[in-house]
Design brief:
This protein has 137 residues and is mostly beta strands. It is built from 1 helix and 9 strands. The protein has a single domain, classed as Immunoglobulin-like. The longest helix has 16 residues. The radius of gyration is 17 Å and the shape is globular. The N and C termini lie far apart (59 Å). The relative contact order is 0.24. This is Carboxypeptidase regulatory-like domain-containing protein.
Length: 137
Amino acid sequence: MKFSIVVLLCLTLVGCGSGGPFKSVPVSGVVTYEDGSPIPVGGMKVFFHSQTPPKEGMHPRPAMVGVGPDGKFENVTTYKYADGLVVGPHKVTLVAQEANGKASKLIAKECADVRTTPLIVEVTHAGQVLEIKAPKP
């Protein structure tokens, strides 16, 4: 009995890191204001919330990537470092990474919440370059 529980637990843990039934592809991109100007923060995190329906009772994980002052990003991570994004639509949220309160005022409030973000990207293929254009606050 104990052996079968251990085997089941191991199989479950192995399955969690594989992405399950969802295909992910490497992507890169840039985050700017809608007018193309850079967002003047020292750094930010971008979160991608897949809108792909569940498969086999599983939901895709949100993905994350750090963005430097130039707004560019690569090595987006969903399940394993730099594995990319699940193919399909994603809501995008932005979080400034500076200690002072000024940085959070440089990103529109609605862009920090998955329920209100107007930012959406459609991932279709490996190597895709995403352009995320955020409204100015």
